[in-house]
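The passage that follows is intended for readers who have already worked through the single-chain material. We present the inputs for a multi-component assembly, then the predicted structure in tokenized form, and finally a short commentary. You are encouraged to pause after the input and sketch how you expect the pieces to fit together before reading on.
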Amino acid sequence: MNLINTMIILAICSIIGIGFYCLIITRNLLKLVIGLQILVKGVMIAVIFAGNVQGKIEMAQSMAYTIIVADTIVTVIGLAMSIQLRDKTGTSDIHSISKLKR
Amino acid sequence: MAAVLIPLIIFTPWLSAIMLWFIGDQHEQAEHTIASGATVLSAIFSLLLLLEISDETLLISPIGPMFGDVSFTTNAMSVLLVCIANCIGSLTVIYSAAYMRHEKSLGRYYGMILLFIGAMSGLVLTSNIFLLFFFWEITALCSYQLISFYNDDPNAVRGGLKALFITQFGGIGLMTAALLIYGQIQSLSIPEFIEAARQGAIPTNVLSLIGFLLIAAAAAKSSQFPFFTWLPDAMEAPTPVSALIHAATMVNSGIYLLARFYPAFENVPGWKETILVIGILTIILSSLMAIFANDLKRVLAYSTVSQLGYMFTAIGAGSVLASQFHLLSHAIFKALLFLAAGALIHSISTRDMHQMGGLFKKVPIISVTFIIGALALAGIPILNGFWSKELILEAVHEGTTIWIYLIMLFSVILTAIYTIRCVWLVFFGTPRSDRKVHDAPRLMAFPLVLLAIGTLTSWLFFTQINHAFSTSLPLHKIELETLTKMADKVLSDPLTYIAIGMSLAGVGLWFFKKKKDLSFPLLDIVREASLNSFRFESANTGIIQILTATSEGIRNLQTGSLNWNIFGMIAGFLIVSILLLIGGR
Amino acid sequence: MPLIYGLILAVLVFSAHKATRVKGLLNSALWLAGASCMTSILLYVMGAPGLAVIELSVGAGLVTVLFVFAISMVGDELINSDVFVPRWLAISIIVMSFGILAVFLILQRLPEMQTTRSEIFSQLFWVDRELDVILQGALFISGVLGILLLIAPSVTKAIRGGKSK
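Having made your guess, compare it with the prediction:
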């Protein structure tokens, strides 16, 4: 059992867990986007870690680049949505836009 | 040659359907002409295909590793059905030129019929089960669209939706069977599957699962027990559509499916017996319903269901040839019956048989052709229905126990009763209303006369059909026979005379009952039950209610709350990781 | 080496925790920037320097700027109403599922980390994935332009409101 590996795995799991916990618990849209960012950072570290131990770090890097792009665009859309939401409803609570029956 | 003919057969109707769409509904005459021309052309192509019958698989082009090859086959069974679909298709389209004159949205009508004819040809010609499923669903779509053609009539819309939903059960069965086949042999080719099944390369339990899924698919498509309630409600369609799709072609695709896969499941225990039982139950129930129905088209629909039951029974008894021969006879005489009934309904503008009566003198062409069809339906010699029905009875007598044969004889009586009742109520007796009628116009009379000639003569081709079947379907083990031998065998068998006697007994029984006006409790119970479709209608309603209630309940889960959704995702992830932890190490 | 890793990882996890739990959105955004910095350092140590640079400039730079901008428009808001999922349930399910994942991964006996620097990343990145990278860059820029377009009405309103005051 390798110490560094163990530490990194624990860190990855806890970062992803923190991100998901934030997504479950929060109702503020901006805070949700922050949780998403944390989550994706954990995933990115996991990708690089996997690439490293498999000896395919270049491939992992170029994959992680795509993750950064997608994540940034999701963040940007989330921010724009929160601003629009605030304009329309006066709050950042995501439950204020849910019009689904029951 | 066949490699050119098959695409022509499929794409001539499809391309002309697109052409009709471009022409638009302002040019009515052009639409009639193009539709008739395209179907006659594809009928000629399909007749040319008769010269190309062989048992080889024809590769058109490969389409990648997942969907198999675009391959077709020209065995006798497929070519027979293609000819039926295209020839009867062209006759009904010619008939439609008179029947649908001055109707709205003709482009939609003809477009769907042409799409249907092309898809039906593809369905029976292809030897790739994925393409089979593809064409199968196109025919279901066309059937739904054409049943609901008068879409301002709520009954028509309901009938169409019912047909669509019930046949979808069959579609699901076929799709699951196709996936299982692909999972077992990594190929979608039907001949390869049959080969693998015969060599025992597929585990028995999987093989029987595939077999029973295919039975479900066939039963739903061919409107057999317990799915038989959709076909009578499909009679809201324009009559040419009923004649083409709901009597002559689409409902036969279930029979075709079973007959095509017959060699693969021949030795699966219980497979043939299941088909036999389904067929027998359908025959009895639908014949009883036909006896008590008052709507002319509904009577014909119930009789279609019961005749399809005969074909099921023939396959269950092990005689594919008898079922296919009856399929040919039935397609011809039932299309004739429907078209004649349609001509009558068109002129008298009601479908209630109690409003008709005494029409024999007024509409001679319709009456004579209808009665020829009815006699064939009842199995009176020497019409084509007689020969094929005798073949089925003989196969049942040889292949099963005596009890099944006795039930079949009983059903022959029932068939005779509902046929004579229908003919008598419509054409004889005293007129029960003062509605004006006129005989069929020329465009309607032409298909009627042609189909009547077909009904009288199609059995003469038995030798050729039998030869084509036995050479191009080696796996079905069809004995080589000639017409004279077959006729000799049928006519020298005392059982034949019992069956004819049963038919006549049915006719006599009906007249007896009519004169004496009998009424006893059992008859009333049966009438009540059959007017209520033996509770199958309420069972359908119950299923729909259960489904609606379940989906209302499930909807509560879908809160639209992001937090709960993500909670659900994590819960799913937890389950997966626990499973991994248990099973993965 | 384990000490360096331990330190970086501890700071990373701590700032991630702070970013999600701290009161006030601005503080959150700043902790997020901190977490991004630590991620970038970690990536560099793990042998992915190219990615580390991108992460630092985008994650800690661009996203933080956008966050601060958005927060200044929306304002800090405390939503007091009840959460839907109970806290104990959320914590327990997260700990269970990711605990299992961590145990599962640790018991896998993965090979050791390598510390060699990658040489051919630029080759792979700029030559093999040329079209891909250009398209992603275009996507990136259009995303940023998109937010500007989406928030433009609010910005003009805010400026007008400020003027009228």
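Commentary: Chain B has one domain: 2-539. The two ends of chain B are 59 Å apart (CA to CA). How closely did your sketch match?
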